[in-house]
Amino acid sequence: MEPFRIHILGCGSALPTLKHFASSQIVEVRGKFFMVDCGEGTQIQLRRTRVNFTKIQAIFISHLHGDHCFGLIGLISTFGMLGRTATLHIYGPADLENLLHTQMEMFCNGLEFKVEFHAVDTTQQQVVYEDRSITVETIPLEHRIACCGYLFREKPTLPHIRRDMIDCYEIPLSQIDNIKRGADWTTPDGVVVPHEKLTVPADRPRSYAYCSDTRYIPTLHERVKGVDVLYHESTYDQACAQRAKLYYHSTSCQAASVARDAQVGKLLLGHYSARYQNESGILQEAREIFPNSVLSNEGMVIEV
Q1: The 56-60 sheet, strands edge to edge
Q2: Active site (annotated) includes residue 261
C-alpha cells in the first residue's frame, strides 16, 4: 500500500510557547507532499523532521490568522534560495492573494519559479485540487474570520493482480493492465480464467480531514463522515467552554463529539492554548466521548 502519512510540524495556537510551534502539517500521499497551514517556525520543523523542502507541491492555508500563515513568505524565500524551479501552488482565502503579492514584491524578487495562487470559497465544500490519485476539498468552518478546513481523499485504485496467477497461466505483462480493468484471460487451449480469480480487491481509499480553527459546529460531522483520521482543533478543555465560544474555538469534548458522530477512525487533537502546561486533561475529556483520541505533538507521523 502506498504511504499516506500526516507529519505534525506544529500544533500550538496563537501565543508562542517553548513547547509547541504554530500550526503546520505535511500530508504525504503516494509520494506527493502537501503542506496545510504554515505558521511561524515551520521551516525549522521541516529541518527537524527531514521532510525535503523541494518535494512540497502545494500549500493549503485555512485562514489569515498569523499562527497559520506567518511562515509562508519565509518559506517561499527559502524555496528561491534552494533553487526551486517547479511552480508552487498556494490555496487559501481570497484576501491572501494581495497580501502575498505585496510581500513577494518586497522580499522575493527574482524567483526562478512561479507562485500560483488559487482563491478558495471558505463557505462551500468543493474540490479545489485534483490529480490522478487524490482530491482535496474545502470544509467550511466557523471562526472569527473566513476559514476552512481541507479534506484529502484518495481515489479508488484498480484491483491487484495475483502474482501466482501470472506465473500459473503465463500471462504476458502486456495484458496485466487489461485484467486489472476487468478483462478475463483466455489460455492458449481456450480455457477462460475469470478476472475475479486473477485479482484481489483494491485497497480501500483512505481519507484525512483537517479542521482548524472553528467553534463547535453541530453539523460538521456530516461533512467528514467516515474519514480515517480527523484533526479537529481542541484549544480548550471543558472548563473553558465559555472562552471557546467567545473566541470561536472548540473544546476537546466538542472535537470528540464531532469524531463520534462522524464515525471516524481516529481523532487527532491539537491547536492547544498556551495556558496548558500539559494536555492530559484535554485528552482525558476527549477519550470519555471518543476513545480513539490522541494528542498531536511536534514530530509525530501518523499513518492513515
Answers
A1: 115-120, 88-93, 56-60, 32-38, 24-29, 4-10, 301-303
A2: no
